[in-house]
Amino acid sequence: MTSREYAKIVQKNMPKSKTVSNCLRAFLIGGGICAAAQGIFEIFTLWGFEEDLAKTLTSVAMIFTGVLLTALGIYDKLAKKAGAGSLVPITGFANAMSSPAIEFKSEGFITGVGAKMFVIAGPVLVYGVSASVIYGAVLWILHLFGVTLF
Fold first, then answer.
1. Burial environment of residue 136 by CB neighbours within 10 A (0 to 12, 13 to 18, 19 or more)
2. Are residues 71 and 139 in the same domain?
3. Partner of 37 at 20 to 30 A CA spacing, among 44, 88, 92, 131?
4. What is the mean pLDDT of residues 1-12?
5. How many domains in the chain?
6. Are residues 97 and 136 in the same domain?
7. pLDDT at 121
8. Burial label, 34 (beta-carbon count in 10 A; 0-12, 13-18, 19+)
9. Would the pLDDT of 19 be above 80?
10. Measured on CA atoms in the order 118, 119, 121, 126, is the torsion positive or negative?
11. Per the domain annotation, does 4 fall within a domain?
């Protein structure tokens, strides 16, 4: 069998791409999560909270919802349907942070939850701190040369 014949067989038997439907589903579900967050924000502002406090409370409510849905096993089912649409909002971050801790709950609070909670948080913290130091250094150097960005 030649490589050309093999490529033809592979092309014939390869599953069809679902990129468009996956992107559409991710957009709709991710947008739905963001719309729900906007609704929660509007409720907090209707209750009389100042805008900054309403934003903070909305973030807290979405993180709590993400962790609760993860603990109940619902978020994983949603993520299978939504793909990246469930990862982008803050609820996806809450899911990523709480999943290892919930999974290792049976190992105890110290060696399980306490140790595994930072499986995802570690790299996020390392790269977040590193990026902020680099950005700060760049801004400081620009400031030395009299360039202001803000």
1. exposed
2. no
3. 131
4. 87
5. 2
6. no
7. 67
8. middle
9. yes
10. positive
11. no
Residue 44 is predicted with a pLDDT of 97
Going by C-alpha positions, the residue among 83, 87, 89, 86 that lies closest to residue 61 is 89
Q: What is the pLDDT of residue 117?
A: 65
Are 31 and 104 within one domain? yes
How far from each other are the two terminal CA atoms of the chain, in whole angstroms?
64
33-58 confidence digits (pLDDT tens): 999 999 999 999 999 999 999 999 99
- Answer whether residue 142 is part of any domain: yes
Q: Are residues 133 and 90 in the same domain?
A: no
Dig out the tokens for 19 from the structure.
């990129």
One domain for residues 108 and 44: yes
Tell me the pLDDT tens digit for each residue of 70-128.
889 899 898 888 888 887 778 887 887 777 767 766 676 666 666 666 666 677 777 88
Asked whether residue 5 is domain-assigned, the answer is no
